[in-house]
Specification:
The complex is a heterodimer of chains A (304) and B (769).
Chain A lengths: L1 H13 L3 H36 L13 H8 L1 H33 L5 H13 L2 H12 L4 H8 L13 H26 L3 H9 L4 H12 L1 H16 L2 H8 L10 H10 L3 H34 L1
Helix pairs in contact in A: 2-14, 3-14, 4-8, 4-11, 4-13, 5-8, 6-12, 8-11, 11-14, 13-14
Chain B lengths: L1 H18 L1 H18 L14 E8 L7 E8 L2 E10 L4 E10 L4 E4 L8 E8 L4 E13 L5 E14 L5 E6 L1 H4 L10 E4 L5 E4 L4 E5 L5 E6 L6 E4 L5 E7 L2 E8 L4 E5 L11 E4 L5 E4 L3 E6 L4 E7 L10 E6 L5 E8 L5 E12 L7 E7 L4 H13 L3 E7 L5 H13 L6 E3 L5 H6 L7 H6 L9 H6 L1 E2 L2 E2 L5 E10 H4 L7 H10 L11 H8 L8 E2 L4 E2 L4 H10 L16 H6 L6 E5 L2 H11 L3 E3 L11 E4 L4 E3 L6 H10 L3 H6 L9 E2 L2 H12 L2 E4 L5 E4 L2 E5 L2 E5 L4 H13 L2 E2 L5 H15 L5 H18 L2
The chains are: A mainly alpha (304), B alpha+beta (769).
Amino acid sequence: MHFHMNRKQRKKKAGSSPRTRRGKLVSAGYLLPSAIGVLLFFVLPFMIVIYYSVVDNPISGQFVFLDNFIMVFNNSAFKQAAVNTLTFSAVSVPLAVVLSLFLAMMLESKMPFKSQFRTFFLSPMMVPIASVVLIWQVLFHYNGMMNEIIGLFGADKVDWLNSSYAQVVIVVLFLWKNLGYNMILFMAALSSIPKDIIEVAVLESAKSYQIFWHIKLRYMSSTILFVTIMSLINSFKVFREIYLLKGEYPYPTMYMLQHFMNNTFGRLDYQKMSAAAIMMAVVMVIIIGILFLTENHFGKDVEG
Amino acid sequence: MRRNIMRDAMNKFMKKFIRFKNIIFLFAMLFILSAVLSGCGKGDGAGDERSEYVYVSEYVEMDMECDYISGLTSSGDDVFLSVSEWDEETGFNTNYLYRYNMNENKAVRLSLEMPENSSISGMAPGTDGSLIMIVNCNTFEMDEEGNVADSKSTIEIWNVSMEDGTLLGSEDVTGLVAGKSDYAYIQHFCVDGQGNLYLSDGDNCIHIIDKEFKKVCDIDAGDWINNMASSKEGDVYMTSYGSEGLQLQKVDLTGKKIGDAVAGIPGGYGNQSYYTGVSSSLLHSNSDGVSRVDVGTGTVEKLFDWLDVDINSDYVNYVGELSDGRLWAITRNYEISGSATSELVFFTRKPSSEVPAKEEILYGTMWIGSDVKRNIIDFNKKNQTYRIKVKEYGNDDYQTGLAQFNADLTTGNCPDIIGLDSLDYSLYANKGVFEDLYPYMEKSGMDRKDFLGNVLEAYEVNGKLYGIIPYFQISTCMAKTSLVGERSGWTLTEMLDFVDEHEAENVFDYGSRSTIFYYCIYNNIDEFINWETGECSFDGEGFIRTLEFAAQFPEEYDYSGERDEGISSKLRSEKILLMQSSISSVQEFQMMNGLFGEKISFVGYPNNEKQGNLIQPAGGSMALSAKSKNKDGAWEFMQTMLSKEYQDSLVSDHGGWGFPVRRESLEKQFEQDMKAEYSEDESGKKVEQPKTTWGWDDFEMEIYAATPEEVEAVMELITSANKIGGNVDEQLTNIITEEAEPFFKGQKSAADVAQIIQNRIQIYVNENR
């Protein structure tokens, strides 16, 4: 019976009317530009990156299988870039999430100059990146404003961008640039939490931290996930600021994975760049996968 | 029955088709994608389809001898040339006027006689059928001792018969064109359709005189006038440099002003000229090629590229058009030995199908050098199978060109031959971009022992030869042997100790921090980087000492101050200790010894092996692409530069511009250098005479035949060099320059900045291992 049904269904499908077929063709026609775009700009580059990662170099194109991955994995510059990138992300992403959430909570409460504060935190988003870097250079240059300030307290000058403090500067720059955007997302999420639940919790004599932990955080879990992923992606993009500050070869603690990829691309080492990109993508997928699992775990009762 | 079978077959096919339609769809998408992509990256590569029509050049030996063409104008198919010829009897140059019939290739010297101390400043056909000439006449008043006491310059307009050169009339127009200055000179001259004469001194004023030699007006051009030309329609145009490069503007006689720049005309800089057109308003010639310009519509039609018609644009003097549609050019071709000949070339438009097709070889380079250009043209003229096309990547700017070159490399559009000048040779050699040339040399019957081993080795990577150079110079540093001793190299420490011991005013003439960096670090950057272990030593004593040493020098040398002493005097008095230069000939070696006033040592650039003399390619360097589809054709061109014939052509009286890479040719050059020249003195005794004179700054000396010892010393210098010069990565120089700055400003210690440099360069090294 089951088999019969399948045959029947298939028969029905094969015998679809010319009108339906025409409809499908029209649909395919409409889809074609998008499909070409996806193939051209996503599938093909991805294939090319895979191809480059398994050949000795882009010119001779000799197949070397996983040699590039082994070579890149053992490359001390890559290791340094990976450690720096992970350290930076591990520090800056939680800070970006927690601080922006804190700011959003703060601006949610009844406080004076609320809109002024909001504008203040959003203003870095409006400044072009080249100007941001210029401001940062003035601030953290060896003869910059920051050293002038600490000089007032009798401290010695610090070479912010050429010492172990360099990553601190970049973390601060990253937070300064990203807090406002994250904060707006959290504010939107906070405002969408059903008021009645909070009112019930208040009537039930729930404490503020309990409301925050058991209600607000649960309702905002998808937003937290989104903000975390966005911050993670943005943390990988901090290369742009570092590149503008110190060029292709910055102080070692500021040397990120994208430096490695950018520089190897410039020197025609596409095989190194591709192998590094694939490894980085795998790590990103794992991290984002873990984030999704975490969100599923914490947010399931809210969504369900 | 048969129909049923057919229907069943069709049904089966359709079912299969439907089953696999997803796969077919995917393949269709990939096909579309590949079709889209196949259009990318194709452009001006060697594989382009030929145009429907091409211009074919025909070289004609000129029916006249001329040392120098001082002026030229055309009227119909006749060209009038003012030619300066050297008269052996009188020992003076004499000016003659020729009428040259282009159709018959026949020159007639016209009877016009030019007075002494006169020259033709311009010529143009008049509206009355006569030739109008601007003649600059100089008269000199001599004092009792025979020296020039006073001189006077006048400008005359002559009407000359085009038939026989008879002077039909003349007028002194000095008063009309001299302006406020006593000195009159005309640089550009044109005649418009009404017969008005336009004269310009090359500054910013155009004097306009009617055909009766009455002043019409002066027009202020505002800008410096680059050139003037009459159009086919009878209007006069001038060119000047605006913000977008050269601009073409009409001289508006009615409004007595200069019109707006003609739209659509190519701007740019460099050697550009406009000539009167026959089938269009004007002809435009620049370093790329020739175009027809229609001023009315502002359209420009490119006719041909100079290299496509086997002409070196550097040598083009005049361009014109004949009534039958052919174009012509007169070129002055300079050989590598220095001799020059004039040549007339006709360009005929033909359907491509009538022109035998040749296989195209693409020569890609950032900028093409004059020697390579000459060699390509010679090859294209002679070779019946292959034709070299040139792609210059660096036309816009270096970085854009480099990015384009890299893109071509990786997308399979790599040129067949790669010009190595301005490229990081070792980077590309290590990436497998180049083909090993030793097998090609063997196939061509070339024995590598016939060439200088150290030069070939400098271009070797892992025993493979990836680049060739036809000739080279030696980049070195010199010091008095009495100061540095008999040595052919030194370490950085030895060099710094030497400078510390001798308290000179400066180490180098015009010495600055960048000079020191280039001398001590950039030219021997591998001294600080061990590529095998990946260790850098920028935090070591040598580098720190170099920083401290460089700090003694100004950031930039102040060239504005008055120079009270020449380099020779400073070296002799030991106010400066070292001199960096390139040695390109035995004669230059002799001159350098004279400059120092005593024996010199070629210590070169400091390095641990004490071998700091560098090979500097002089006549272009090139490599064969490993991905070339026509390697044999590409090699056929490349081998011409190593051929006996070409290498021997580099041998010259003055020593040439570098040393030939072929041993036999180099020995011939040495023989030439050692050959003495004699003359007889008053008593009839044979005495050696100087071969030539060489000079540098405040120093000048006569060069006699070289001694065997001098030649031996030059050979020692040549063989001591085993590296190519100028291959330092800009990334490294940028890091060092940027980070050393705080030390020079006194903000950080040398050790601190050295540590930062070490850290940053260490990443560079790790990344590239």
